[in-house]
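Final report, closing paragraph on structural work. Over the funding period we assembled a curated collection of sequence-structure pairs, and we close with a single example.
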Amino acid sequence: MSTPINHHYVSQCQIRNFFNGQDKLIYCYDKQLDNYFSKSTTKSLFSEEFSNTRVGTNDELDHETLENELNLYFEQDFEKHSRNVVELANNPHNNDDTKLESLYYLVLYALIADIRIPENKKNIDESYATLMRETAMKVRMLGDEKQADEIEKSLINDKTKYSNVVHYTEIAASRLAKMGDLDFKCMQ
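Its predicted structure, as stored:
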């Protein structure tokens, strides 16, 4: 199996729901360019090369860890859970534990959507870098030049687009916990 380098920030399992089976096309709109277009595949939509690549142990590039985490916890059962939620919406009285599990699955998927977008990844990295530069400056003012240099050196990343020091599962769980108890209702 080849190593994935084209990483989607909107999963293909979600994009495929917008695919027109009759025309065998997905219709798209680019807001920035005010341009309508269509594609025959989802492979290059909402993706960029190396978006989920990070520096692993021993300073090697790791293209797979985040991709595997996304697949295992957020994508491989997306279709099943989407189907369960549609069934629940169509028949709210047919509610059982599998439907509730599906609702939580899709909530967790939604809770990480924003941090997968390239612009947001860049903003996270810039915020972190600003915080660390301020820390280095304070450490330097306290007289520890060596430690300040180490902090600044840790900010140099010429190997990957983004730091990708996140774990999507941890972020989703943390955000869900902060939301408290969820109450799902099907409105008709």
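The CA atoms of residues 71 and 95 lie 27 Å apart. Strands lie at 6-8, 19-20, 25-30, 35-39, 47-49, 54-55, 61-62. We thank the funder for supporting this effort.
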